[in-house]
Amino acid sequence: MRGLDPSNIDQLITISGMVLRNSSIIPEMTEAFFSCYVCNKTHVVEIDRGRIAEPAVCPNCETRHSMSIVHNRCVFTDKQIVTLQEMPDDMPAGQATHTVTLHVYDDLVDTVNPGDRVTVTGIYRATPVRSNPRQRTVRTVFDTHVDVIHFRKDDQHRLREVDVDDETGTKTAHFTEERVAELKELSQQPGIYESLAHSIAPGIYENLDIKKGVLLQLFGGARKDFSNTGRGRFRQDINILLCGDPGTGKSQILQYVHKLMPRGQYTSGKGSSATGLTAYITRDPDTKQVVLQSGALVLADNGVCCIDEFDKMDDSTRAVLHEVMEQQTLSIAKAGIICTLNARTSVLAAANPCDSSWNAKRTIVDNINLPHTLLSRFDLIFLMLDPQDENHDRRLGTHFSFPCFGETVLEKEPEVLIVTY
């Protein structure tokens, strides 16, 4: 995305990034219908790159400037403007993220959602900008965008295959027979639970119980909907809190889950605000209208939101998590926009004790030092403590030093399909 320059204009390019925002569907004219008010002769003109070649002379009566456009006889197509943001992994250190505007037409409209990681193939375009809409003069600096030809989601190698109905356009996910047979064979293996748990963050030494909890969070639970009986809907996602001494691998587990999940979001406690986690109001540079920009929790819908340094967040920022972690919705009432957004996300948070290190003389609640209303919304709370034992440190040092010599202490885990889930 950073390599795009004027030499790529009107050429076929391929870039990758994360979808940040989708605009509403905009009708764009593809064929203009003109009629002469003298002889009623009609004429159809095709649109070329947004320009309407209005006929100056009627081809029948040869009257000058007698052709007028008939809007309800023109042909329009669906258009959508998508904002694509640079991947965090591809961003150089110390620089801000780049965004590219995508123009999507016809069948590609609404094929991607905010939060999806996609690879885009399209034509790089440059359009002139008028300083005043009522004047013909244009600026010397052009606006650039990409006319999308194809989208490819980066999670297509997952287990499911998606079929699209040609008539209704609905998408249905299913498993192939080979994949079902492979999963059944995998489920019959002895110790599959431990093997999958060992595959979570293999660089972290021990902490098998914590890895099992993270594994259950990645799989999630069964969706329970009792709306017909009046009991409402119960959440199926698991929220986990990791609390313990510094240097015990909490952030490494969060980074692993963030890279593993196709719709995972990673944020830090001190660098996050209430609007950054939920949604904020901004003005669209194209339409000049007030729009709602999704935050990290909304972008991580049907995924996992990893929050590091959870104890260093402000109280006002943590207050927005109450509704998300229990009701899995997000209510917004800002700048005349009143709506409820879906935030069906699992929260994986990491925090340090109140004294930066665990105090054995205090209780667990006093060490964590989080509000009781927020602490009760975490289903699993793990303590990652440094035992400060010589034998443990010796085993840990041996575990890290042996791979440097081409050897390993632990037995090699069998190959599993944790990444394809």
Outline, from the CA principal axes?
A: elongated
Unreliable stretches: 407-416
Percentage of residues in helical conformation: 10-25%
Tell me what portion of residues adopts beta-strand conformation: 25-35%
Round the mean pLDDT to the nearest integer and report it: 79
Strand tally? 21
Largest beta-sheet characterization: 5 strands, mixed, barrel
Strand order of the largest sheet: 1-5-6-8-7
> Measured on Cα atoms, how large is the radius of gyration?
28 Å
The end-to-end distance, rounded to whole angstroms, is: 29 Å
Number of helices: 11
Structural class, from helix and strand content? alpha+beta
Structure characterization notes:
This protein has helices at 177-187, 192-199, 208-219, 250-260, 274-277, 296-299, 315-319, 321-326, 364-368, 372-375, 390-401; strands at residues 12-22, 26-36, 42-46, 67-69, 75-85, 99-105, 117-127, 143-153, 161-164, 171-174, 224-226, 232-234, 240-244, 265-268, 279-283, 290-294, 304-308, 329-334, 337-342, 346-351, 380-384. The protein has 421 residues and is of the alpha+beta class. A five-stranded mixed barrel has the order 1-5-6-8-7. Strands 14-17-20-13-21 form a five-stranded parallel beta sheet. α2 crosses α3.
Describe how the helices and strands are arranged.
Elements: E1 12-22, E2 26-36, E3 42-46, E4 67-69, E5 75-85, E6 99-105, E7 117-127, E8 143-153, E9 161-164, E10 171-174, H1 177-187, H2 192-199, H3 208-219, E11 224-226, E12 232-234, E13 240-244, H4 250-260, E14 265-268, H5 274-277, E15 279-283, E16 290-294, H6 296-299, E17 304-308, H7 315-319, H8 321-326, E18 329-334, E19 337-342, E20 346-351, H9 364-368, H10 372-375, E21 380-384, H11 390-401
Parallel strand pairs: 6-8, 13-20, 13-21, 14-17, 17-20
Antiparallel strand pairs: 1-5, 1-7, 2-3, 2-4, 2-5, 5-6, 7-8, 9-10, 11-12, 15-16, 18-19
